[in-house]
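Quick one: structure for this chain?
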Amino acid sequence: MKITGLILAGGRGMRMGAVDKGLQPFRGMTMVEHAIARLAPQVDFLILNANQNSDIYAGFGVPVWPDARPDYAGPLAGIEAGLRHCTTPYLMTVPCDSPFLPHDLVARLAAAMLEQDAEIAIPVTGIGAERQSQPVFALLKVSLLDELATFLQNDGHKMMAWFAAQKLVEVFFEDEAAFRNINTLEELQRFEH
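Got it. Here's what it folds into:
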């Protein structure tokens, strides 16, 4: 499977005080550099979705694409931008604010996708009442672009609503902390150590 990795850095960072989360320093690097370091060895190519500071992001040596839709339309708009600029049959998305993502994320999602003949594979963590889907970490077929564009055109925004309408496989990951995202400056400081 040829896979392009997409790092989603297109949000406004409102919970972090309206700062660009991907560019915040964390353990000696920016948050986006952690995402690049974790994802790059798992995919064939990397691209980045950002709606601000694109010249700074381009300095990390990764092509940068903004949303095609105005007003920070959410992660699905970032995924749409990624699908539009993806040159491989598959796209793997990860957020820029999750510096601990698993080193075997792509391999495990790809194996499940092929085994189940699915169109999308996402991780899930926890069991029972603690079970949680992790849809921002998604492996998708690029052929879904038109369906996603139609969903967004019809004011759809909820990731799981769109994912559930596709052939979806969920893959259990035991390490919930690997999918931790850092949303506030307080969390940034707490996990620094």
